[in-house]
């Protein structure tokens, strides 16, 4: 059974940071914070459109959203799948004049939920010119590079236009999408494989980044990540670096000036396989900093050793000189936490997506945590899997009388 992914119009709390190569320039450039894709037919009744103005060819141009290149990210996969069968593109749109000489194209990438690395699945163009008829349907197919994807990975779609013959300058090409089940306004991509994505998120449980000391001791400023509440109103203070950056700088404690790591208690065994959402509050000292944060969640041994990164996610919004609430999805592959292991949260500086461009050095960013839930000084992870504290079970010595809890 085939699976279709619909391009939708609402912003997604997930980012890849800036610096991805633009077709229009062939160099790293500016992408807008991504729009979402759904694996179920949208149900509302409105639709949206993207547009781009043609230039003298030969050229390939991304569509624009808020003046920046448009990209679409799916929700993370709910199961493993290998993409190898025929992919069918169904795009609705038009060009303002037949002299524009354009055709549709689309690149699809696998994005790793673990570390956000990207793998090109396919990059295909239609073999006919875009129609001048409004919302006309354009369909084409491609055989992709066989690509294995795991739970927590997701798709990145980059729609664009390119030459049909030679592109002419000064015309407009429109892509209609988010048709909400109105056939002439839907734009979607159909895969031969059957799979589902984690479109629905239930924020049932909350982990809070706290200021209390963890029982893990490393070279970092080690604090607790758990369900307790606090009113300490703490913050990190980190100097920005020149972007584009793929690694970033780990956020440092304002007082100790050590990188901060937050640790859960030792946990009971659980299969970790559902997406989470990190929420935080950040402030930059100057709007020119162009900075946001990236989260990394790792699984470690009980003593904090042997960390294995489970998921990485970047926030979509740039910090401002006032409180800025930011969010990011975290989704990794299905993995078993064995009894006694922990989760470790680290936050890093990252380039903000949007018109700002790469991060600039010479400024600072504050990130707030361990405050009251009612205020702006909180950093949390929302999740719909219940974690519980591991309590070691010791055998009863020979000859001893085992205590039994009475009613």
Give short descriptive properties of this protein.
mainly beta; 407 residues; twelve-stranded mixed sheet; 2 domains; Jelly Rolls; disordered C terminus; eleven-stranded mixed sheet
Quickly describe the structure.
This protein has 407 residues and is mostly beta strands.
Structure description:
- 0% of the residues lie in helices and 43% in strands.
- It has no helices and 29 strands.
- Residues 402-407 have low confidence and may be disordered.
- It has 407 residues and is mainly β.
- It is globular, with a radius of gyration of 24 Å.
- It has two domains: 3-191, Jelly Rolls; 205-383, Jelly Rolls, CATH 2.60.120.260.
What's the SSE blueprint?
Layout: E1 3-11, E2 35-38, E3 48-53, E4 60-62, E5 64-65, E6 68-69, E7 72-74, E8 81-83, E9 87-95, E10 102-111, E11 118-125, E12 136-142, E13 147-149, E14 154-163, E15 172-177, E16 188-191, E17 205-213, E18 221-226, E19 234-239, E20 260-263, E21 270-272, E22 276-284, E23 291-300, E24 308-314, E25 324-330, E26 335-337, E27 342-351, E28 364-369, E29 380-383
Parallel strand pairs: 2-7, 18-20
Antiparallel strand pairs: 1-2, 1-16, 3-15, 4-14, 5-6, 7-14, 8-13, 9-12, 9-15, 9-16, 10-11, 10-14, 17-18, 17-29, 19-28, 20-27, 21-26, 22-25, 22-28, 22-29, 23-24, 23-27
């Amino acid at each position: 059974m085939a699976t279709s992914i619909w391009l939708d119009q609402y912003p997604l709390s997930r980012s890849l940071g800036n610096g991805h190569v633009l077709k229009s320039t062939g160099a790293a450039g500016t992408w807008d914070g991504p729009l979402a894709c759904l694996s179920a037919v949208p149900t509302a009744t409105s639709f949206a459109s993207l547009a781009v103005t043609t230039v003298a060819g030969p050229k390939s141009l991304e569509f624009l959203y808020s003046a920046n290149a448009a990209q679409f990210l799916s929700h993370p996969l709910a199961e493993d799948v290998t993409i190898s069968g025929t992919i069918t593109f169904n795009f609705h749109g038009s060009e303002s004049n037949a002299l524009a000489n354009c055709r549709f194209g689309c690149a699809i990438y696998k994005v790793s939920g673990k570390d956000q690395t990207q793998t090109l699945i396919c990059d295909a163009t239609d073999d006919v010119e875009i129609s001048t008829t409004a919302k006309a349907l354009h369909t084409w197919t491609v055989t992709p590079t066989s690509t294995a994807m795991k739970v927590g990975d997701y798709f990145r779609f980059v729609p664009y236009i390119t030459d049909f013959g030679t592109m002419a300058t000064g015309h407009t090409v429109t892509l209609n999408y988010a048709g909400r089940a109105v056939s002439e306004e839907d734009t979607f991509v159909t895969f031969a494989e059957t799979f589902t994505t984690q479109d629905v998120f239930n924020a049932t449980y909350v982990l809070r980044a706290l200021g209390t000391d963890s029982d893990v001791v490393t070279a970092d400023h080690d604090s607790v990540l758990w369900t307790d509440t606090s009113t300490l109103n703490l913050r990190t203070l980190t100097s920005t670096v020149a972007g584009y950056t793929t690694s970033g700088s780990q956020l440092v404690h304002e007082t100790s000036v050590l990188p901060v790591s937050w640790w859960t208690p030792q946990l009971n065994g659980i299969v970790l396989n559902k997406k989470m959402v990190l929420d935080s509050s950040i402030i930059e000292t100057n709007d020119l900093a162009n900075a946001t944060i990236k989260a990394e969640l790792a699984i470690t041994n009980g003593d904090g050793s042997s960390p294995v990164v489970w998921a990485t996610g970047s926030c979509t919004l740039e910090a401002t000189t006032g409180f800025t609430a930011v969010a990011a999805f975290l989704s990794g592959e299905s993995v078993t936490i064995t009894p006694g292991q922990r989760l470790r949260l680290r936050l890093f500086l990252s380039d903000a997506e949007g018109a700002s461009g790469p991060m600039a050095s010479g400024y600072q960013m504050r990130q707030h945590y361990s405050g009251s839930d009612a205020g702006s000084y909180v950093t949390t992870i929302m999740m719909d899997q219940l974690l519980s504290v591991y309590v070691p079970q010791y055998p009863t010595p020979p000859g001893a009388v085992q205590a039994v809890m009475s009613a």
